[in-house]
């Protein structure tokens, strides 16, 4: 159970502690932040509301710990990461329980997230040993006008202190996707978990604590964004920010200064369906892509752009599958569970009502109880409707009928988002041409958008982000190149 057994030391009464300098602590503020269960809409957990002074102390210990950690052999860093991964997977049930209660993630998906996170940490340890164990050796006479009088040695060194801010929908997996690359590269890390998902993240951090990482190397501060959000992101001790979320990322990027940024800020992932597409395959992927975890995924299918000639047939197939989706509490492993908050549900409802007012065809009756919204397919959506452009982050999917492929590409590219997209066709040549024309970080051919596998590059264009994720890309982003040049008194040629 959450907060019991090996996790009992992270709980004080009914309030979860924060983690700094290798210890679980209570905030001097004596204030807490409530975490609301999306299903019951009642307070499920409470976490500490850390102060700015506590953030300052955390940053100082992180800076100190990083200096020692950078001298730790690479194999030893990897060994500790493997140990943390094993502990994480061993205690998947307790962490998954938090995900069910904090973010209404279906029980089986919650367990999958924790196991996937352990696998990511282990993979990152292995990949880090390979990437960071190699450097480059350059010689000067490869550039015109130079003799071989200089030997250049390059290696990757850590940036320093990494600030990691994951989102509510994957508070464990998207946290470790930042933590593991940072640590294997020799950095220290300060984690600011989302409010919804904070307790799952605290349990995950305790697994790293149990693995025996040095004090101060990993910290986890909880609290209100209004009090410590800007203070964290603008803190002079931070050398890199890795953020996954929404519009807040744009604000962070404008304030952060001259440090590396890795950001993924959402999407309006378009699904373009051509006349020759396998409509059964398309329908199955629309259901998986548009409605899994109630559509609360950055890579969810957010708009279907289907050729008019096959639109009726596709809509009927999708409607039949929507009718089979189960709706209810996450404990019952329902397909559609409550969205994360009442404000999210209200926003989604606003998009639905706008579409209704402007004449969209409702393929199902709109139904909502509290935070639970039944799956809804909207046909005959037009570009003047908000749902055509805005990201609902819920189980509502618009269908726009198009007269040409060019029309579909134009709609996709007119969006201010550019995370992922997908194309369904049996003609691989058309698929590649359309993929090249779509202004998105990734295009899936004959499959729904997806972030994984976790070692694949993952990036967004335009307002969807900065930089690229994926294990290798994250390790490279959280390091900088250090060069040492040996100057020889005379030209040297091997065996010359």
Keywords, please?
alpha/beta; Glyceraldehyde-3-phosphate dehydrogenase; about 40% helix; about 500 residues; 6-stranded mixed beta sheet
Task: Describe this protein's structure.
The protein is an alpha/beta fold. The protein has 14 helices and 28 strands. Strands 16-19-20-15-14-22-23 form a seven-stranded mixed beta sheet, sandwiched between helices. The chain has a six-stranded mixed beta sheet with strand order 11-10-9-12-13-26, with helices on both faces. Helix 9 (279-291) crosses helix 10. It is globular. The termini are far apart. The mean pLDDT is 97.
Topology, pairings included?
Blueprint: E1 11-12, E2 15-16, E3 18-20, E4 23-25, E5 32-36, E6 43-48, H1 52-69, H2 74-90, H3 92-103, H4 107-132, E7 136-139, E8 150-158, E9 161-165, H5 173-184, E10 188-191, H6 198-211, E11 218-220, H7 225-233, E12 240-244, H8 248-255, E13 261-264, E14 270-273, H9 279-291, E15 303-307, H10 308-322, H11 342-357, E16 361-362, E17 368-369, E18 372-373, E19 376-379, E20 396-402, H12 405-414, E21 417-418, E22 420-424, H13 428-437, E23 442-445, E24 458-459, E25 461-462, E26 465-466, E27 468-469, H14 471-477, E28 479-487
Parallel strand pairs: 9-10, 9-12, 10-11, 12-13, 14-15, 14-22, 15-20, 19-20, 22-23
Antiparallel strand pairs: 1-2, 3-4, 5-6, 7-8, 8-28, 13-26, 16-19, 17-18, 21-25, 24-27
Q: What is the number of strand segments?
A: 28
Number of helices: 14
Shape: globular
- Low-confidence sequence ranges: none
Residue-averaged pLDDT? 97
Ends apart, CA distance between termini: 70 Å
Rg computed from alpha carbons, rounded to a whole number of angstroms: 24 Å
**Main beta-sheet annotation:** 7 strands, mixed
Strand content range: 15-25%
Structural class: alpha/beta
Helix residue percentage: 25-40%
């Amino acid at each position: 159970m959450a907060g019991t057994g090996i996790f009992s030391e992270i709980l004080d009464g009914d309030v979860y502690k924060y983690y700094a300098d290798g210890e679980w602590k209570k905030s001097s503020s004596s204030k807490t932040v409530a975490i609301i269960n999306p299903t019951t809409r009642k307070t499920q957990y409470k976490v500490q509301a850390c102060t700015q002074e506590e953030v300052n102390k955390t940053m100082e210990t992180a800076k100190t710990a990083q200096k020692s950690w950078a001298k730790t052999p690479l194999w030893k860093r990897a060994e500790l990461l493997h140990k943390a991964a094993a502990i994480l997977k061993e205690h998947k049930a307790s962490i998954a329980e938090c995900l069910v209660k904090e973010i209404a993630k279906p029980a089986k998906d919650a367990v999958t997230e924790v196991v996937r996170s352990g696998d990511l940490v282990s993979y990152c340890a292995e990949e880090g040993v390979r990437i960071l164990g190699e450097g480059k050796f350059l010689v000067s006479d490869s550039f015109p006008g130079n003799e071989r009088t200089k030997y250049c040695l390059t290696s990757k060194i850590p940036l320093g202190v990494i600030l990691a801010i994951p989102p509510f929908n994957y508070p464990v997996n998207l946290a470790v996707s930042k933590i593991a690359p940072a640590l294997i590269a020799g950095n220290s890390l300060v984690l600011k978990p989302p409010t919804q998902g904070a307790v799952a993240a605290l349990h995950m951090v305790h697994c790293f604590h149990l693995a025996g990482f040095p004090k101060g190397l990993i910290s986890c501060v909880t609290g209100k964004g209004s009090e410590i959000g800007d203070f964290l992101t603008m803190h002079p001790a931070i050398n890199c920010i890795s953020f996954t979320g929404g519009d807040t990322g744009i604000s962070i990027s404008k304030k952060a200064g001259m440090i590396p940024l890795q950001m993924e800020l959402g999407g309006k992932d378009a699904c373009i369906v051509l006349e020759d597409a396998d409509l059964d395959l398309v329908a199955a992927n629309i259901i998986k892509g548009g409605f899994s975890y109630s559509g609360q995924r950055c890579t969810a299918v957010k708009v279907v752009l289907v050729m008019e000639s096959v639109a009726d047939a596709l809509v009927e197939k999708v409607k039949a599958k929507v009718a089979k989706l189960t709706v209810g509490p996450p404990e019952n492993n329902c397909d559609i569970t409550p969205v994360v908050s009442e404000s999210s549900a209200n926003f989604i409802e606003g998009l639905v009502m706008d579409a209704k007012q402007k004449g969209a065809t409702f393929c199902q009756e709109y139904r909502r109880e509290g935070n639970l919204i039944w799956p809804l397919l909207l046909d005959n959506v037009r570009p003047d409707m908000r749902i055509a452009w805005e990201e609902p982050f819920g189980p509502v999917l618009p269908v726009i009928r198009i007269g040409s492929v060019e029309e579909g590409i134009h709609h996709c590219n007119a969006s201010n988002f550019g995370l992922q997209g997908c194309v369904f066709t049996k003609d691989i040549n058309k698929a590649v041409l359309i993929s090249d024309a779509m202004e998105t970080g990734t295009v899936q051919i004959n499959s729904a958008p997806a972030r994984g596998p976790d070692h694949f590059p993952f990036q967004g264009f335009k307002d969807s982000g900065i930089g690229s994720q994926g294990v290798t890309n994250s390790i490279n982003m959280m390091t900088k190149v250090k060069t040492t040049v040996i100057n020889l008194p005379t030209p040297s040629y091997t065996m010359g």
